[in-house]
Amino acid sequence: MKNYIKTLVFFLSIISMISCSDDDSSTTETFDITEYIIIGKSYYNLPCIIAFSTNGKATIVNPEGVSENFYSFDGTSLLIDGLGIAEIENAEIIDYDIVEGYEFNKAKLVHTSGNNDLKGKKYSGTVLSNYNITYHYGNYAGEPKDFTIQFHSNEDKFGSSVTNNSDTIVLNKEYTPLGNSAGYNYIPNQRLEIFYIENNELIFFSKIFYYPGIDEFMWSDNLTAE
After folding, report:
1. Domain limits at 106?
2. Is residue 87 a contact partner of residue 113, using CB atoms and an 8 Å limit?
3. pLDDT in tens, 55-109
4. Domain match, 91 and 134 both
5. Burial class (CB in 10 A: 0-12, 13-18, 19+), 103
6. Please, what sign has the CA dihedral across residues 18, 24, 29, 32?
7. CATH (domain of 204)
């Protein structure tokens, strides 16, 4: 009888260990897409950000503006209506099939936990500036200009200046944070600004609408923190 009890206890302990192991495995493999954003170059190699809400909508920010598309995610396959599908493994995008013109260049997932890394930062460097740039057709010729962008320490606000104009930077433009390292400012038919941190540098794009056919564009891939 004692041997039977010992054997029973032994097998119960083994079953318990297996059960705990399975639970740990399932917890480790859980991937919540809403805790990530996608950053990269899209739409003719210009900055794009995609963020995911818990209500099944993805916010897509690119040089055309800001839109919300429905998405679905089953743990490996991410389908965004009107955009395409991406395969995700170990928190990395391993493959994707995106509609023509919106293909990503080195798209990657960025975890969004933590504080807003933009707050209190100032970045400067050279931007290329152009009026009437036809980025739809790949015309990227632009005039280099010194540029500075600064983010408020406590509020979701920022300001920027083409420094050779000796402008004082006023932090009065509001932006919408995406994750903790990206954001945008968008006023339809007036202004669009997109920015995100990558490799400790700020990727930046802006488009100012003057009237149909006359827009001003500025962009940079390597604004450095001061």
Report:
1. 33-111
2. no
3. 999 999 998 899 999 999 999 999 999 888 899 999 999 888 887 667 777 789 9
4. no
5. middle
6. positive
7. 2.40.128.20
